[in-house]
Amino acid sequence: MNMKKYENIFIVFLFLIITIFFFHPFFKDGKLLFPGNLLISFYSPWKYETFKGWEHGIPNKPLGFDNLRFFYPLRKEILNQIQDRRMPLWNPYNFSGNVLLANSQSAVFYPLNILYLFIPLIDAWSLLVVSVPLIAGIFTYLFLRTCKLSKISSLFGGVSFAFSGFMIVWMEENPAISHSAIWLPVALYGIRKYFATQSVRFWLLTILAMVFSIFAGFLQISIYSWMLVFSFSLYEFWHLEKRQRGKFLVPLATIPLFSLLIAGIHLVPAFEAYLASPRITASAAYLVKEYLTPFIHLITLVAPDIYGNPGTYNYFGGGFYYDKILYVGLIPFIFCLYTIFNRTKTVYFFVLWGLLTLLLGFSNPFSKLIFWLKIPFISTVTPSRIFYLTAFTISVVAAFGLEIFIKNQNRESFKKTFITILSLFVMAGLFILKLQSASFDPTNALIASRNLMIPLVVFVLTSVFWVIRQKKTTWGNHLAVLLIILSIFHQYYFFKKSLYVTDDKRFEFPETVVIKYLKENSLLNRIIGVGEAQIFPNFLLPYHLFSSDGLDPVFSRRYGEFINVANGREYTANIPRIEARLFLEKEEDFLNKNKLRALSFLGIKYLLVPQDFVLPANMFQKVYDDNKVTIWENKEVFPRCWMIGEVVIRNKPEEILNIIFADEFDLKAEVVLEEKPSGELAKIDGNPGTAEIKEYTSDKVRIKTNIPQNGILFCTETFYPGWKAKVDGKETKIYRADYTFRALVIPEGNHEIVFTYESLSFKYGAIISALGLLVAGTYGAVLRKKVSL
To answer: I want to staple 654 with a disulfide (CB 3.0 to 4.6 A). Which of 40, 90, 305, 571 is the partner?
Structure first.
């Protein structure tokens, strides 16, 4: 028992050493695993600033966009709200208001995110990146040990998965994907140990692994993990003796049930947000075109960067590099094929799963059918991310291959493996010849040729080790260790292209002169950027500045449709599924009446504008100029809330939007509701009254009104389930107004109106989670008692 304990401690230490080697810029040089260099170099308004000590330029890689545009700003906002002792349910700064906790990728309840409460955000962020290969590698090792593999083979499998291409590119690019993925080997380890020992702690470990995968925030990856874990449980259950099955049946069935219940606090709000988002109506056509991988990409199994790499500014493969990553490591792939050709029956389960992932991720009639069937959720996700399971299955099967290599040698299987790998290199060579034709950029062939050299050298060295193994039958373990070391260095060569760091802590969303001006003057007014000075969605969130734009996996579909028409397009339910932006790219855009109406109506007071832009003087005036960028003020901006006396009733989406953007419709004096409001309303010819915001937080807005007669209080705040309103302490109905905003009927006189966000889906989810914990705990106690009898 003690030896087993020491073995595990040694393995943890070994994985820690390997991880430190890969992330030595963080551990040795103190650099941060955050794309701050990219932020400062390329994005407005920071690119207009000069930072002391970096006058000659800042080294950077075009990697980490999602972290800058989404994950880091949201993590910062969640932390701010928690520190203010508020549940982070609502984000008031983007999309004119949007869900926060209900966005699954916010990962509010993910246990490892507790680090953010105790150390600086940027340091916790970096440590969570480092934790990905540690957890993935250690538990893949432990899982393989339960499969009766040697320490060396299990280490090989653990390193292969922890530093596979998928994990390498996503551990920094998207924390939700990588952290949802790392709990798969934990769950499989728990299942194997539970079958072996019947210990309740391993039953509980499996449940927690499934729950943590969901809490990490990327449901697509969690669903893939659940499918594999569930099918593996059935596979293991089927191979039990019939007399043993009875005692495992109910406990195994409760694992997915209790996992779903415990995750209710996360899943129920997420499901509500999904139903209200554009993902329900968005077309899957572009997913089929852009993200189903062509079969020629099989060559990336041996040469991952034959299409170049964005980290070296030479990627020419089209689409997003990360979403087409198939590479696991050349040496693991070689040993995976060796296992298959050796007809090792114990890995057939993982081989079949690996083939299934390729079938679903590559472009073929079956995978296309999945998307054209419009299956809820499945048909609106990026298909190639199932290659995460490809990476895991190849790593597991490869570990079995190294075990065979150590114990004995099958020359016939090696020949088949050698021929298959050689065939892929030949395919790569033919691909390079094609790139040399006149129809392609000749530099692409040079990039592909150069990036094929290292894999070829590794293949030759591996083949040499294989030949030595045939000559020296007792050298199996020694050669296996050398192969693992070679594989680690080969993966590091690939890894360092994708690794990005921040060289200076000042690059963590610094406050520039422009941002300081906006913070001092904008108050509750919204801000937008124009042309080269455009401010990407969510970039203003760390400064608590408001914007009509936003980027999020889920947001109000109605709001997205409104912004789509505001951009001058026809009404359609097929809108961008993760982003809503008012596009102002050139001066001609300021001639578009829909955009101009939206600018004022949405309360956009300040526009960050390039030096060479001149905006219409009748509507805008320049208020800031630093010879690099200018700020213009919208003189016709609407307040956030105001009183209206005239109501139009319509309930057809296209008709409502046509009315709102019609020249004859007075947005300040009229409002479109979708049902008749309660109470008597009369058209107000004179002063409609006043509405003054007295308090504004993420989940509460307090307004004082003074009106001469009954009227409508209208606010350009997104209408969403969970918002409640009280007039002088008495609850009143919130109406959906002007297609996607909020309105109340207010009686004449002086009143206090309080909006509060009280998400019912969150409350129901919390009750379900509490129930799940209670029932799981009770059943676990009963199960433990049964086992001890």
So the answer is: 571
